[in-house]
Design brief:
The strands form 2 sheets. This protein has a 3-stranded antiparallel β-sheet with strand order 3-2-5, with no helix packed on it. The chain has a two-stranded antiparallel ribbon with strand order 1-4. The radius of gyration is 27 Å and the shape is rod-shaped. The protein has one domain. It contains 2 helices and 5 strands. The protein is α+β, with helices and mostly antiparallel strands.
């Protein structure tokens, strides 16, 4: 379950990075096109290609990736891992109810923002 949490987190971050990469690459192509358009003089016999059509910026693709990236991030934020030897208590911010969990290693789903998970040690302290 911890692997699934980190895979979802990585997928969400990767979607943000890819969207930024698409916009950066399109901005680079636009800058190159602008330079080529400004430096092109057919009467002076400048070598090189004609500027052609302006490159389009792929706003929709980037926006779609950014909007889809929130889903795996929210799902991964809802997965809570309770280590072994600890007891998990789910604290609801809206219902004021505490639900105790078992002391085995477990993973639970919680609603991010409205529920929190607190872990308390269940092992006794032995003093000499």
């Amino acid at each position: 379950m911890l692997l699934l949490k980190y895979l979802l987190l990585s997928a969400g971050i990767a979607m943000f990075v890819i969207a930024a990469g698409i916009l950066s690459y399109d901005a680079y192509l636009t800058i190159v096109w602008q330079r080529r358009r400004l430096n092109f003089r057919p009467e002076a016999g400048t070598p090189g290609l004609a500027p052609g059509l302006a490159p389009s910026v792929r706003w929709r693709t980037s926006l779609a990736l950014v909007m889809l990236a929130w889903a795996p991030l929210l799902i991964s934020a809802g997965i809570v891992i309770v280590p072994s030897g600890m007891a998990g208590v789910r604290v609801s911010q809206t219902e004021h109810v505490e639900v105790t969990e078992n002391n085995k290693t477990s993973s639970q789903f919680s609603v991010p923002g409205s529920q929190q998970k607190r872990a308390f040690s269940t092992q006794y302290a032995v003093r000499n």
